[in-house]
Description:
By secondary structure, this protein is of the alpha+beta class. Helices cover 23% and strands 13% of the residues. A four-stranded antiparallel β-sheet has the order 3-2-1-4. Strands 6-5-7 form a three-stranded antiparallel β-sheet. Strand 5 and strand 6 form a beta hairpin. Helix 4 (137-157) packs antiparallel against helix 5. The longest helix is centred in the C-terminal third of the chain and has 28 residues, at 303-330. It starts with 6 loop residues before the first helix and ends with a helix.
Amino acid sequence: MRTSTAPSAILPPPTCSSRLFPLRSFIGLRWSAPRFQVRERAGASVAVVNGKRGCSFRLGVPTLNVCQSRQRAVVIRNEHAQNADFPRKYSKREKKPFPIPVLELRRRAKERMKAAQGKPKQPMPPPKNGMLVRRLIPVAYKVYNARILLINNLKRLMKVVPVKGCKYCSEIHVGSVGHPFRTCRGMSAAQRRGEHDWGSTLVEAVFLPVEAYHLEDRLGPRIPHDQRFSVPHIPALVELCIQAGVDLPEYPTKRRRKPIIKIGRKEFVDANEDDLPEPEPDRFKQPLLEELHYDKIIAPSSPEEAAALAEETLEAWEAVRDGALKLMKGYAVRVCGYCPEVHVGPTGHKARNCGAFKHQQRNGQHGWQAAVLDDLIPPRYVWHMPESGEELQRELKTFYGQAPAVVEICIQGGAKVPEKYKATMRLDIGIPSSLKEAEMVV
Length: 442
């Protein structure tokens, strides 16, 4: 007579390559990446656990143990990525990768040239012909006002949500007490063993002011090296809004009413506009907000007011990033591949002020390439504080998540956590209560 054996004793321990996602990333917690499915087959059900990139194994268990009343498949899926890696920090000795590889750019250029053979030359679309993109003018005004609203609201929120900044490096932390991680690389960091010296900070440390040269004519000649001090520097996002249609009296810019006339590859002349009637009032023009000084900032009087202010600030943050991304698809923005220098225009300036790695070989010239959204609006990631309110511990660093500083301030102010930031904040990861429990993690 055959002895009965439990199903768990029949199954050998599954084996797979080292690339398989660990079945139990953390003790007593939900899985982040694996997807568990139960499929029915004759006499048994097959459970398929998918890990990373197609690595899977099958578990055969009797059907009666899965479902006795109804013989149908039960599928449990988890398509949302609960945990994600933090954005990569590139070394100062490493060049930034191109958003689109050079080989792909060459392939697209060849396809365009091949498709244009034998066909009449098409006129240049705006903004290459000097005209404004009409559909992006309201977007430019919205981004400009959202930026001012974001700065004013952050100044108010930072009166009730403490933000600390290191006195020797650029790292910040949202909380009443700075984090204990030894990541300082500033002056005399070796004597302090990498510990930060926390103090108060300003809104410029949270919403980084990336600056660029202001161009009176975006199609004009490139800024030479000897004029680098005579051309004004303004926030790059403001310069992008000006080129997209926002009119600021203190920063005049040339507006053309007719497309330019090209006489060479890099030479053109402006069309005669004398026959045109007087320009009508711009129907796209909107009232502009003004940035408030610190003396006029009033802190929220109640937690309800702070929560409403945090929600409004978070909406302004998303409006700034979404609108800037739309503007960057129409107007070119350049960034140096070696340093954080940003230039708004079709071609970068000629100022030789790059001091990054191997700048002597380039004579200080920038290596211009297409910019991405994080180059124009750096998110500035900070450590996310747990909902329990406990202070961060140095030994449990791998269990904590990160979020942009603006988002973290809004969350601690009372706003709801946006869905797009939950992956890096690691909200579904339980934090061990002690170091001994952390050492038991598989």
